[in-house]
Amino acid sequence: MEVRTTDYHTAGEPFRIVVSDIGEIAGASVRERRETAAATERIDRVRRLLCHEPRGHADMYGCFVVPPDDGGADLGVLFWHKDGYSTACGHGTIALGAWAVESGRVAAPIDGEVNVVIDVPSGRVTARVRRVAGTVEEVAFVNVPARVTARGVDAGGGEVDVAWGGAFYAFAPAEAFGLRVTPADLPGLIVAGRSVKAALDGAPVSRHPHDDRLSGLYGTVLTERVGPRHHRNVAIFADGEVDRSPTGSATSARTALLLDDGEIAIGDTWRNDSIAGTSFNARPVGEVADGVLTEVSGTAFRTGEHRFVLDPRDTLGTGFVLR
Q1: pLDDT in tens, 189-242
Q2: Is the Cβ–Cβ distance between 207 and 158 less than 8 Å?
């Protein structure tokens, strides 16, 4: 078995793009293909191979590029991590925008901007890629409509706010758990994130109103105020995974919360820092019937091109996860 990938990082968070032909993933839409991938051993073993040790790690992230839902998009994508397949991934969308232009998949001006339209399980998103002298300088994506789902939800010992940004997230100040958003407090942040997610598992506040395949609390976001329109956060997603970036889909959801709080207005930009010290900028760009349109911007850089192999004699197979 051999799998080729192109790897990026977006604000410090890895993103592994499979460029090998791994065979058809059946489905009439990206959302259907997400279900197929999870249920098909031939496909899912590739995810495990690339996520699990010794080729990956507990916090690895990546994707399969698939056909879009129709001719209105440039590509479709299935996002994955060590525990399965997510409905959205903002940092991955930024990386895919950069990759689509840098690989030549989407033609772009030497100086200027081009839109890369991507179908993801939660809907259609648009990455606006800006180049200067042929180099990608920034990618900003407009997400599916974000919205506040609930305020002051009891999460087993504390209250959280819940919002949607392509996935459902619970938000709480880190200080409510006696923590700071710093690497030194990371073990405690993981414990807090897991506890909130467990307390809200299956709760109505994370039920999608139109498609139950999009339901479920994806992660807990622990926040910290730095200054006016300047915050820091860490997303603990899936089963204790830690996003090194500020988390694009969570930043989109938080934008809806900050707009609802009155801290920002339509068009106002705010800054969101990660636990690793990297940043995204975000702003609400308009209100629609089912929420608020948000734009999240950042940078992504290619880190390598890889050829992964699985020797049939290897008794570890697709690998293991210790955490």
Answers
A1: 999 999 999 999 889 999 999 999 999 999 999 999 999 999 999 999 998 999
A2: no
Nearest residue to 44 (alpha-carbon basis) of 57, 29, 69, 62 = 62
C-beta of residue 51 within 8 angstroms of C-beta of residue 62 = yes
- What average pLDDT does range 31-38 have in this prediction? 98
CB 74 within 8 A of CB 117: yes
Positive or negative, the Cα torsion across 29, 30, 36, 42?
Answer: positive
Which tokens go with 209? 């109103």
What is the rounded distance in angstroms from the CA atom of residue 218 to the CA atom of residue 5?
Answer: 26
Give the tens place of pLDDT for each residue, 61-85: 999 999 999 999 999 999 999 999 9
- From the list 17, 63, 66, 89, the catalytic residue is 89
How many CB atoms within 10 Å of residue 279? 18
DSSP code per residue over 263-278: SS-TT--EEEE-TTS-
pTM, two decimal places: 0.96
CA separation (Å) from 197 to 4, 170, 176, 220, 222?
34, 8, 15, 6, 12
51 is catalytic: no
